[in-house]
Amino acid sequence: MRAFTFVAAVSFFAACNTPEPESTVRGEGPLAQAIRSAAAETGAPAELLAARGWQATRLSLARDGEGHAHESHGLMGMSAASFARAASLAGVTTEALEADPALEALGYARLLVELRAGDGLSAWADAAVTAAGVLKGPAFDAERDELLLVLSGGLHVETEDGERLVVRPVELGFDVVDSAAQSLTAPAPGQYPQLGWYAAHPNNYVAGRPAAPRYIVIHDIEGSFWSAVSWFQQANPYQSSAHYIVRSSDGYVVQMVGEANTAWHAGNDAYSRASIGIEHEGYASAPSTWFTEAMYQSSARLVCAIAKKHGIPVDNQHIIGHFQIPNPSVLSASAAPGTVAQTQATPYSYGGISNHFDPGRGGSGWKWDYYLSLVKTCVDAANGVTPGTGSIVCQGAVCWSSAAFELNQDAKPIYLLKQNLVLLGHLTPSAAKAAPTRFDAATKTAVLSFQAASSLTPTGSYDAATAGALKAALLARSYSNVPPGDVSYGQTSAGVTTLQRALTNLGLTVPQTGYFGDLTRAALLDFQTRQKVPGGDGTVCGSMTRMALSAALTRGL
């Protein structure tokens, strides 16, 4: 992070030895002084300079160094062209401008003077949004109005460098409506939150996709919310876009590309075609500043709805960061997402073609464990699973559902229940596949059969007593023919060898090398497709797949 240093050479007051007048921007730190000095020299409103810096970067130059094409530049969130022009107006190089906030404040203020067309705060705000590279249109108006709202409310903030800065509220003299304001009332689990719609430029996405999405990719913008909206609305040189963008301050979500279409966001065409991309306002190197609770909650509700709609598993191999995407110049474009350990050990093999590591790996940046727990809780609730009861329990190779189910319910754990009933001989394989996740009439009949065999009251519903009896019946069997735990793409273990042997015994011949590579993935995907395993994409042999293997090895495909 850059430390602020005040350069006396550009201080109007220091150079002229003149007492500094009362300002609407108060603070004793170098940044406040730089803003006041630039305003005094150019006539640009000091409060607008401070408000724009807060809106664009929270007045901190946290960067991850990835060079996102649409990222903002400098404290004031300028486009690359505007940043270069500001450096020229300050009489320095862009490197010098980047290194000193006083120079940047002066160059930026001179740029606003050059861009301003008209009088009043609205004209200055227009110039600030123009300097950000936002094209005229709804996104331009929304960012300008957001800046004016910051001005009207004033600021009392502390930057990441510890500098305190106060901006007195400004009377605008006209009404401004937050065009992106939304109700923050959470939608029902599995339902989409209220969305704004800003269509991406047709050059930046492709109509259609080859198959239903298998992944959800989490990004951060490395810039401001509206800068990304504007970039995706332009015919940008990288033809980049994303399906959704989430705002930091309140979790407001806009959609830019329909889920049925392919947005270019992954730096890997195979992944772009197989995923839905979600951008988040902010910077990976300043997570505490930008990745707010409102953002986590809103984004999790959105991902919950997407996962529920498309049957995408809630785990870190399907809901992934940009940093996990294989670099197609190093690995196979369709290789499995990297684990945190893999991306740390071989960083140039992941992050797409440009090796991006947003929104932060492991314990840094994005709070992955917390985020996925929010998504899982929401998806469980959408599937009728009572929070806290747990939906799937495993003991060694044996897995069962601890949730209660009854006729006509639909939930992924019901698939596991059906495979358990197939394994124990109470349900036929064909009946289990007829409605894989639905508690249909055949499932009720099978539960009644199991309850009768277990001396339980025959209710036909799957309740706690039935779950306990099912657990005992399952644990009484041997499972040496299936992996004792989850195995995944890229892994080498005895469990992988067991998986390969099981697939071969089912007629899906694969070499028994112990390495989970492309041949094993293809065979596993074939099995998951035949058995209609929810979310199965060949990359993970998890609880549902293991029990489906046990059932198939015992009762046939």
What topology emerges from the helices and strands here?
Blueprint: H1 12-16, E1 25-26, H2 30-42, H3 46-57, H4 80-90, H5 94-99, H6 101-115, H7 120-131, H8 138-153, E2 155-158, E3 164-167, E4 195-197, E5 205-206, E6 215-218, H9 225-233, E7 244-246, E8 253-255, E9 262-263, H10 269-273, E10 275-280, H11 287-290, H12 293-310, E11 319-321, H13 340-345, H14 368-382, E12 392-395, E13 398-401, H15 412-423, H16 429-434, H17 441-453, H18 464-475, E14 487-488, H19 494-505, H20 518-531, E15 540-541, H21 543-555
Parallel strand pairs: 4-8, 6-10, 6-11, 7-10
Antiparallel strand pairs: 1-3, 2-3, 5-9, 7-8, 12-13, 14-15
Helix pairs in contact: 2-3, 2-6, 3-8, 4-6, 6-7, 7-8, 12-14, 15-21
Search tags:
about 550 residues; alpha/beta; Lysozyme; Lysozyme-like; Muramoyl-pentapeptide Carboxypeptidase, domain 1; 4 domains; 6-stranded mixed sheet; 3-stranded antiparallel sheet; 21 helices; elongated; disordered N terminus
Tell me what you see in this structure:
The protein is of the alpha/beta class and 557 residues long. It has 4 domains: 8-167, Lysozyme (Orthogonal Bundle), CATH 1.10.530; 195-380, Lysozyme-like (3-Layer(aba) Sandwich); 383-475, Muramoyl-pentapeptide Carboxypeptidase, domain 1 (Orthogonal Bundle), CATH 1.10.101.10; 487-555, Orthogonal Bundle (Muramoyl-pentapeptide Carboxypeptidase, domain 1). It is built from 21 helices and 15 strands. A hairpin with a 6-residue loop joins strand 7 and strand 8. Helix 2 runs parallel beside helix 6 and helix 15 packs parallel to helix 21. The protein starts with 11 loop residues before the first helix and ends with a helix.
